[in-house]
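User: Okay, second chain of the day. Same drill as before: sequence in, structure tokens out.
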Amino acid sequence: MKKYAVYTGLLIVLVTTTCAQSVLRVDGTKISEDSLTRRIQQLKEAAGVSGLCIAIFNKNRLVYDKAFGLADVPGNVPLKTSMVLYGASFSKAMFAYIVMRLVDQKVIDLDRPLVEYLPKSLMDYAFAGPGHNYQDLKDDERYKKITARMCLDHTTGFPNWRFFEADHKLRIKYDPGTHYSYSGEGLCLLQFVIEQYTGMDLESIAQKNVFVPLGITHASYVWQKDFDQNLVLGHNAGGKPYNIHKRSKPNAAGSLFTSFDDYLKFYTALINGTGLSKSSFAEMLRPQIRIKAKQQFGPEALQTTDENDNIALSYGLGVGLMTTPDGHAFFKEGHDDGWQHYSVCFIDKEIAIVIMSNSDNTESIFKPLLASCIGDTFTPWYWENYIPIGDQKAKPGFAFYCTPCNNDCDTIPHAYSGLCPVCRMPLVERLIQSRH
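Assistant: Same drill. Structure tokens below.
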């Protein structure tokens, strides 16, 4: 009985200590794990988010790691951190890390023109699909100036993707090295050159430089059959799953599938600079180009502003950068149909967060989520188009409507953006309709 009493006492102390654990935020405040979990759940439910995984780091060590909601809404399958999600542009952060590993290995130089690594002219390479060739650039020799650095800091001058162009042709819109313009095309060019020069495909390079060294077993740039048994589905705003694109060829800009657990292994290495020389890690986090655009994408990407000068918004190599009253930080987002991810690390504070979500609704809660979890009030949410529920104003003559709702709200303009108060579906902005 005496031993039992001692054991019970120790158990009570352990449970009490565990429940009392808290998360340190960048402003010096703390929040208990229980309070944080409740807050995340509230935000998730308010926005109709299908599911999300959240991890928080203090002193660059994992202190909070939870999954919320469903991996498959129609199937009512609970989301777990061990399940495989589509990484979207989180693929780019890992690729940048790989490239810096190759720089350390002196396989590639950041400032040598990429065409110099090829045994023949870039124009002489034949590709299977129309979306991969470089013949569109034959009359613009500026492509010969593009370097690995320009690909990683998004100053190649390429559009994000050629298929976003009216004629679906690849072109150089800005002199290489002079202007920030987020581009998956630039990452794909760098991938192609590295594959040609090394004789290895990206998946093999990733296995050698990331997956094997870090003990990552459920991540890949190409589809693996065992992913089917443990898969998370991406969902639209109404909770309907999208089809999964099972890639057979690696794509540096966006083909990574990974469990949340395994992505955290990589992210832990990234924020600690593990596997990189001090000079390469410092170069990743050194501002390469200032960003003055009002938004990262869309029409306002062509408008300049000083709104983000207070955080010196810039881009490094593979990650965005900002300087805040709470120190320097780097961030990377991921976005595709059904997938909305974000990560940010406050370098000086050694505090970071990783969010991966399988819902089109999640970006609407990123602003309050970041503030609640780690006290981040600096992420440029408008530049990222992370418009919070209730914060967006309609243009003159326009209002927010609920298109799918079969109730009266379909014809009644709402004064705020976000979710319809009747059917909980996302509102859309359009010309004010007559009730007659």
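The two ends are 80 Å apart (CA to CA).

User: Thanks, on to the next one.
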